[in-house]
Amino acid sequence: MIQLFEYHIIKIDSVYDQRPTESGLIRLNAAWYREEKELDRYERKLLTGTIAQVPIGYTETNFMPIDPGIPNHKIYVGHDIIQNQRNLDYDWSNEQYHPGAKETIDFETIADWGAKIDARQGEKCYFHPSVTEAENFIEEGLYRCAVHELICVIRNGKPVPQGGYILIRPIVDEQLESESGLITKLEGEPDVLYGTVAYGNMPAGLRIMFLEYSDWKVIIEGEELYAMREDEILGIEI
């Protein structure tokens, strides 16, 4: 088994959910259409596998900018600054140097993220659907998984979040009828801005408010949860 820097190797049985539907149809790797719109193929992916190999180690490569606050500061980059960078042998290209304000922003490194991961070989894991894209393919049944793509592992029967993720249980509105008795909803709908901590480095059951679009849904051990990072939480209920 090969071993990589910075990437876990995940063993999976299938990329897509190919279980029969209630009507007996088999889900295949082909476009579905619903109301004349293609169903997002990410929704058809299986997001679980087994840790086949852990990384050799992590580098100090800049990975994710640390949020400088809202609004983000803007810095004008003039010709003199660009020339200074050229004098320091920075290449004029996106690969090595592109003029911008990033020189003043602190970054989390890949090693910083890796320090928050303790996944072990052989553990069942859940991951982001991007893991099973073609660019991460190693060989049949094996894909590489970056530090920000590993959500959690199952340890002693319970999810253990990885890489600083927190798993949130969405708050569902159970009030389906108005005071007059009219049905206002067909079923409970999750409030996308509120939830309670299910698993992570925050107390379980803590009610939190989080940024819109910071959540993404994943089914973990049969339960629908939202995965997000701690810095995407706006506040907690005291």
Main beta-sheet annotation: 7 strands, antiparallel
The secondary-structure class comes to mainly beta
The proportion of strand residues reads: 25-35%
First-last Cα distance: 49 Å
Shape: globular
Radius of gyration: 22 Å
Mean pLDDT: 78
Counting DSSP H or I runs of 4 or more residues, the number of helices is: 2
State the assembly state of the protein chains.
Answer: single chain
Strand order of the largest sheet: 8-9-1-4-7-10-11
Contiguous low-pLDDT stretches (5 residues minimum) are 30-38, 94-99
What does this structure look like?
By secondary structure, the chain is mainly beta. 6% of the residues lie in helices and 34% in strands. The strands form four sheets. It has a seven-stranded antiparallel β-sheet, with no helix packed on it. Strands 15-16-12-13-14-17 form a six-stranded antiparallel β-sheet, with no helix packed on it. It has a two-stranded antiparallel ribbon with strand order 2-3. A hairpin with a 2-residue loop joins β2 (33-34) and β3. The longest helix is centred in the middle third of the chain and has 9 residues, at 79-87. The radius of gyration is 22 Å and the shape is globular. Residues 30-38 and 94-99 have low confidence and may be disordered.
Task: Quickly list its features.
238 residues, mainly beta, 7-stranded antiparallel beta sheet, 6% helix, 34% strand, globular
